[in-house]
């Protein structure tokens, strides 16, 4: 997804321009790769992620969903 400009960011905690979200296997964290102009700028491990919590995250953070998640 394309990251909204309203998402919190700092110099050493960049949000990137895009994020690629990968759902983990059961009992494994989801992973979000944050991508900027220079490549991957941050990797987030999202523990306790459920499909519902990831959808809520997309609603908060995405200005545009490029590829909708499979359910």
- What is the residue-mean pLDDT, rounded to a whole number? 90
| Stretches with pLDDT under 50, minimum 5 residues | none
* H-E order: EEEEHE
Q: How big is the Rg?
A: 12 Å
Number of strand elements: 5
* Biggest β-sheet description: 3 strands, antiparallel
Helix/sheet category = alpha+beta
- How many helices? 1
Strand order of the largest sheet: 2-3-4
Walk me through the structure:
The mean pLDDT is 90. The protein has one helix at residues 51-61; strands at 2-3, 18-22, 30-36, 39-46, 62-64. It has a three-stranded antiparallel sheet, with no helix packed on it. By secondary structure, it is of the alpha+beta class. Helix content is 15%, strand content 35%. A hairpin with a 7-residue loop joins β2 (18-22) and β3 (30-36).
Give a quick summary of the entry.
With 71 residues, the protein is of the alpha+beta class. It has one helix at 51-61; strands spanning 2-3, 18-22, 30-36, 39-46, 62-64.
Note the topology.
Blueprint lengths: L1 E2 L14 E5 L7 E7 L2 E8 L4 H11 E3 L7
Antiparallel strand pairs: 1-5, 2-3, 3-4
């Amino acid at each position: 997804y394309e990251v909204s400009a309203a998402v919190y960011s700092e110099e050493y905690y960049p949000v990137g321009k895009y994020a690629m979200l990968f759902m983990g296997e059961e009992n494994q964290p989801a992973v979000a790769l944050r991508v900027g102009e220079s490549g991957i700028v941050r990797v987030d491990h999202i523990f306790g992620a459920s499909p519902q919590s990831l959808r809520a995250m997309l609603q908060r953070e995405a200005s545009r969903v490029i590829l909708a998640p499979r359910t």
